[in-house]
Amino acid sequence: MTGPFRTPAGGSRIDRSRTLTFTFDGVAYEAHPGDTLASALLAHGVRIVARGPYSGRPRGVYSAGAEEPNAFVQVEAGPGEPMVRATGLEVYDGLRAVSLAGRGRLIDRPDPSRYDKTYAHCDVLVVGGGPAGIAAARAAAAFGARVILADDQPELSGEIQRYQDLTVLTRTTVTGYHDHDLLVAVERRADHLGDDAPPYMARRRLWHIRAQRTVLATGVLERPMLFPDNDRPGVMLAGAAVSYAERYGVLPGRRAVVFAAHDGALDSAAALEAAGIEIARIVDARAGLAVDGTEADEDGVLRAALIGGERVPCDLLAVSGGWSPNLGLYTQAGGRTRWSDERAAFIPDGGGRGDIEVAGAALGVVGRAAEHVPGHDTARVYVDLQRDATLADVRRATGAGLTSGEHVKRYTTIGTAADQGRTSGVITARLLGEQTTTQRPPIEPISFALLAGRDRGDLLAPARRTPMHGWHEEHGAVFEDVGDWKRPWYYPRGGESMEEAVLRECRAARESVAALDASTLGKVDVQGPDAAEFLDRIYTGRFAALRAGRCRYGVMCGTDGMIFDDGVVARLGPDHFHLTTTTGNAALVLDWLEEWLHEWPDLCVRCTSVTDQWATVALVGPRSRDALQTLTTLPEPFPFMAVRPAVVAGIPARVFRISFSGELAYEINVPSWHGLTLWEAVINAGATPYGTETMHVLRAEKGYIIAGQETDGTVTPLDAGLAWAVAAEGDWLGRRSLRRPDTIRPDRKQLVGLRPLDQSHVLTEGSQLVAAPEATTMQGHVTSAYRGTVGSFALALLANGTSRLGERIYAVDSTRAIPVEVTDPVAYDKEGSRRDGDA
What we know:
By secondary structure, the protein is α+β, with helices and mostly antiparallel strands.
């Protein structure tokens, strides 16, 4: 015996020869293998297992399966798991669980569990391991079909012989039917660990199954009855009470009242009596009888039913309003349902995607039934136990004019909890007079850990490192994440603060020579006889006329005319181009190029990512030419926006005369395995290393934008001051959208500079721009803000900004309104003489 309510014999699901120990709310109990936490607690007479999430009312086990609305617990053993249904949690040695009030607690420790994903194709998928499901799987397998039979229980309800192409998945819940006959299932396994392994160490698998034909033998769900105080511990679905007695050898009560409204109630009453439970009264709603309420003891647990003014002592109130076909997957597949008086339920009515068939009890159970809706104490009549939603809430919704189930669902939250409205959906639909009810996937909650599988940490987002990463680490670089890359942020020396280090690096770039590891820039090799024509369509500028050996800045727009990305395009030969992109958008740009090549099949072009093939060092500053000449003989002439082959530090290289700093600069590209050698050679030539923060300061002083920082999907090239990069001719992507009235209106937000009147302030990025300190209308926002060689400054997007230079406005963050002057976005060397230099 493992509890006072355990029967001396019986229980088809449990192994009485062995005993397990678990704790619930800090109290130790015993159970048998095969017990669920719900059955084990009932065996010990534990009636209160949770609380109403909003009412705080005590709640007990209500069902025996996935329809359970009350008994959710927090598992504390192992890594822990929030919001676990006690009716599906198999007891194991060492299980520790605590009761909940409708809300779980996120786990804050590492999870050693294994989560996998797998993919399968089959001729027939059978969902449900009852008699109908077993018969369907057996017939299909005997015919030679590839069959998968999935059931959420630890074992099938009957035997099925082995077939070569039959796969049986127990402990597996099919949670969703999606387009193109894709079904998603969750399997709980403990294969390599053995059957005795704790479930928290078990392998969980997420199955993606493509089925040519699907058979839904998903059975039926019992409906509750409505009456005041129908949420008390001790109120339980009649079929669930029978299941605990027959499957687990557990008596959910000693003395029962059966309140039902369909033909199967007598069968449930007989089964409970056969198990040893005294039947105090059978109340049949079809005869006009009803339970008017319940009475509870001092703990809130049921001790009597109130029937027609009579008090009937009982500790179990077994209720059944009829059987509803479990058609969640069917309706997800687009299947229609209709109400059947003959079966007193919503039954399949055709339609849907794919080849899907409903079998067995899921077609409906024939039997007379009645509906009982109490007219009093509606605030204590619970329609959705997991949401604490009452009949009064439904009445309030309909009184407000809501008639659609979708609207009432959102008004009352009925059907939005983890049980997906299994016990409340049909009742609510009938209360509203609707003729259908639909569940959305997933039918059963799927944890984020399972959705991620092994794609976690570095396996989800591998940290990418440049060939020079080890050098940066050895020399004290502080790193930041840019896309997937680890990039040096700044290089502090001798206890320098970040601001001190950045200003020192800026001075080196502006006054001497400095070097940036720019290897993370996206790089795309574009080749083909139509490459120039292709780029003329992709970028806002013209590239067909670009001469080999020359570079041009290019802006990409989406079809909506908004800036998507930017970079430099270099023509290496008649049909050969080298494109650079922002670090974070490298993959997106390649996808964009390939997408449009599919749209323009007449163009003969190949696009290849070469980001990892080239290591890039930006050599910057007025002494950069001198430093580079110690490593190579520079080709002549070598003007700004040119590209030349060279041998740098003994390494074959492509050298670009381009600048993202506003200074004389070169970007040296070498095969990636030579990246560290090149970097060390540049540093030995006198260059000061600088990081991404200094890079941002230098580019912002020159008014250069960062796609994704100065742009947010609503910024056109004209807004960003890039009209010079927009060709008047051609049919490039986004051109027509730039002619819309919305994109040419004069009050659009435009790129400007800002200078705080008090230079001790550095503005906060994202600060709102307003006309006066007390103003509430936002006119723009700060996109970048730094302290650099020009002092404290910022870039911003400001409504009608280019016509407001010299105006005083205010930048407002969470604590202050800072007066600023609107300036030209180019704060340093507007003429470009330092950048362009001589050839």
